[in-house]
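Q: Start with the shorter request: fold the first protein.
A: Done. Sequence, then structure:
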Amino acid sequence: MQATDAAEASFGLSTIGQIALAVSQLDRAVAFYRDALGMRQLFQVPKMSFFDLNGLRLMIGEGESPGAGHSSVLYFRVGDIHEAARALEGRGVAFERAPHLVARMPDHDLWMAFFRDPDHNPLALMSEVRPGHP
């Protein structure tokens, strides 16, 4: 096996650098992500806006064709899912249901709470609660 073959064989995707979501009204979506969710806006260009999610970049943009499907889910890791849900509800975010236990893992309990942005893109809070922690 040559060096280039070995490098190609060991290559694997492992880090998300950006996630893109289609929106129908950029100004409304920017207000939701920036103001309601409290994300740091990096910059905006015609038909697109970019946010920093602790090193991961989120691009929201007006779709090329109206009515495009929404299939991506963004899962936001939080320490205290109940506190995070209360803070977002205080900013007008409506959850589909209260934070709930999804699975008991060997070393933690996985909690989630789902909500949607103004374009009905699914979003979620997730929290890995270790034993002995609230």
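Q: Next, the second protein, separately.
A: Sequence, then structure:
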Amino acid sequence: MKKILIITYAFPPSNDVAIHRVLRIGKWLPEYGWEPVILTPDYTFSERIDNDNLVFVDKYFKKVYRSSGIKEKLLITIADKRKRNLLSKFLRWSYIYNLQPDKSILWFNRAVSAGLEIIEKEDIRAIWSTIGPAVTGLIGAELKRLTGVPLLIDYRDPWTLNPYRNYSKARLQKNIDLEKKMLEYADAVTATSDFIKEGIVKNNYFKADKTFVVTNGIEQELQWVDADYKELLLNENKFNITYTGAFYGDRQPFSFLEGLKLFIDEHPDWKNKIQFNIIGNLDPSKNILKYCRRIGLEPNLNEIGLVQYRNAMEYLKQSDLLLLVNGQNDESKIFIPGKLFDYLATIKPIMFVGEGQPAEIISEINSGETVQHEPCEIKNALCRLIINEHKYQYIELQYGKYLSKNISKNIVAIFDQICDSV
């Protein structure tokens, strides 16, 4: 069996959302003749820890190399202290403003050194670097330069083309130069959406015929869908609408809340029956809570906050409707939020507010409603879903396209192609 080195900055026990792409695709690689070998930093780099997913590492990933240097761990630990003294403030300023592309570059030298050892020891036939942060791609490019092993750069999110990153003009140019230099060593590039691929090609970052779309996928075992876990329960007497993740930039729920208010005004008997659950990082300024209070929806808001992934999936399984929100500007259309595939795994109806590829997937699978950021549209969709109990029957054939087993098969075809061309 051929071996592939997967370079990822987040891996269990990290609770970062980035772990799921590697876990779900990596599980199935041996089915197609590739054994995954993981290179990741020591878990002490992780801001949040979730030990639940380690059971899948033990089951599906036999070779995991964790490599971090003492200097970078000390620097990040000191700089990120909650009670910052002058030293920690200075170090934090240093790595925010001076390290290119960001503080994760501190892992670069140690990871390259470890990667060279792994390539020789494990007889690695291909490298898969999954971005972000961008350092994983830079490490992969350096290993390709030094060894000639074929390299696939995988964009979960864009780097310099990411609309949610704010760079100064000088910093942006430095990062563009780094990114284009990195891509000179890539044999192929994958992106998680059509729009990300389009940006890479249109801006002459990489060749169109070597750039592919490989979306995230559904893997119910790794998403805890089949797990019997009842410690956390939503109110069964409520109609539970649930959103997981953060609200940021123009990705906000205010138009949905306006639509929900219109629905309740039109159907007052539902006022005490609906509960809107938010699971994840909330706006520290409490703008969402203030808005709900102002329009009279505070009793309907249930702020659950951050929970472990397994718990979040349990909340989704117990919900009646799952909310997905994209921003209102054109730039936000480039993303397919990873949470969409968590929602799809539960086979629950989805309401997507916004535009972009999620709308196409939801329509293709027949998994819910897509509406604009327009309160009357949202109200009418809620009427169809709640009052009329409109049922959405997922189309099995189309749903199967997004199973991780099939997603893995697609990415393996790219591994085989870049290896055959060497």
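Q: Describe the second briefly.
A: The chain has two domains: 2-217+403-420, 239-400. The longest strand covers residues 124-131.
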